[in-house]
Amino acid sequence: MDDLVEFLVARIMDDNHAYAYVAGTLGGEALLDSHLPMLDLIEQLANDYRAMDPSDSRSAGLAYALRVLGQSYAEHPAYQQEWRP
């Protein structure tokens, strides 16, 4: 699961860099309808999972949610099929 969390955080960083490029090129208004808030929330979930004790009853549900969110990057070459929920 740690590999999936690292993968998700790396993809979020890639996406944030892409949005920064767009903002720098086209101006901040170009990001008004962006997915930046969603990326921030996914990153927060990944950080929460890292900090969570494995015995926490929420751990399994959060792991499942991260697996589902990870599917949005299933076409990425580093995505591993074993991460599917």
Beta-strand fraction estimate: under 5%
- First and last CA, distance: 11 Å
- Element order, helices and strands? HHH
Task: Choose one word for the global shape.
Answer: elongated
Indicate the radius of gyration in whole angstroms: 14 Å
Low-pLDDT stretches are none
**How many beta-strand runs?**
0
Instruction: State mean pLDDT (0 to 100 scale).
Output: 90
Portion of residues in helices? 55-70%
How large is the count of helical segments? 3
Structural class: mainly alpha
What characterizes the major β-sheet? none
Short description:
The protein is mainly alpha-helical.
Task: Please explain how this structure is put together.
The chain is mainly alpha-helical and 85 residues long. The protein contains 3 helices and no strands. 9% of the residues are buried. The model has no long low-confidence stretch (mean pLDDT 90).
Describe how the helices and strands are arranged:
Layout: H1 2-26, H2 36-51, H3 59-70
Key attributes of the depicted protein:
single chain, mainly alpha, elongated
